[in-house]
Write a structure and sequence with these properties.
The protein contains five helices and six strands. The protein has two domains: 142 residues, no CATH class; 53 residues, Nucleotide Exchange Factor Grpe, Chain A, domain 2. By secondary structure, the chain is mainly α. A hairpin with a 2-residue loop joins strand 4 and strand 5. Helix 2 crosses helix 3.
Length: 209
């Protein structure tokens, strides 16, 4: 961590939050589809492709949040030396500092970690069938976005879904190829974005009987 320097003012956090939410929507609308197209060269089944991307999102957020936690500890230890306010103001100063110095995050390490984790996932095709490096661009964008979302108060996160759960219309949209009378989620296409337990952006699922 660098020597103490003035953090970015938090008054811009509302616009920063809006930009991060917009970025999440953009990744869903464009870069997710590009990743699907890249995977379809190796995997014919659309369901498998969508499962791969969903797990990539979940693993990217998990890896980025873990990396953020480690960076935050180091930054807090350093800023505490010269900080003159209370614990709450130190917390804000730490978040502002990390938001201002994004290069503290080694995103390449997270991308590698996510790819390795996916290669070991028993629900996905084995590494010999498809190399998940083909969607490393998507993984990188998700990791960077997830890391930045942790600098908000409260942070933004994704809701982790489970196959077979009851369909929640407040949290998900049904995919176009769903059985619209089915009450259960067959699999998840895209996770919902949440803030302090409240759904900010709905996810997408496939429902089948």
């Amino acid at each position: 961590v660098r020597p103490c320097s003035p953090p970015r003012p938090r008054r811009g956090s509302a616009s920063h939050r809006a930009c991060l939410i917009a970025r999440y929507n953009f990744i869903y609308a464009k870069e997710r589809l590009e990743a699907e197209a890249a995977l379809r060269r190796y995997v014919c089944d659309l369901e498998t492709v969508q499962r791969i991307i969903y797990i990539a999102v979940v693993e990217s957020f998990r890896s980025a949040k873990m990396a953020f936690w480690k960076v935050k500890i180091n930054v807090k230890d350093t800023l505490a030396i010269c900080h003159r306010g209370g614990p709450s103001s130190l917390e804000v100063a730490v978040l502002d500092y990390i938001a201002c110095h994004k290069d503290l995050y080694d995103v390449c390490c997270s991308v590698h970690e996510v790819v390795c984790s996916m290669n070991r996932n028993p629900k996905l095709p084995c590494p010999g069938e498809v190399d998940f490096v083909v969607i490393s661009g998507l993984i990188r964008e998700l990791c960077c976005l997830a890391f930045s979302m942790q600098t908000l108060i409260p942070p933004l996160d994704i809701a982790f879904g489970i196959d077979g759960e009851c369909f929640n219309r407040d949290m998900y949209y049904r995919s176009f190829d769903s059985d619209f009378t089915a009450p259960f989620v067959a699999y998840h296409v895209w996770p919902a974005l949440i803030e302090d337990g409240t759904v900010i952006v709905k996810g997408e699922v496939v429902t089948k009987k």
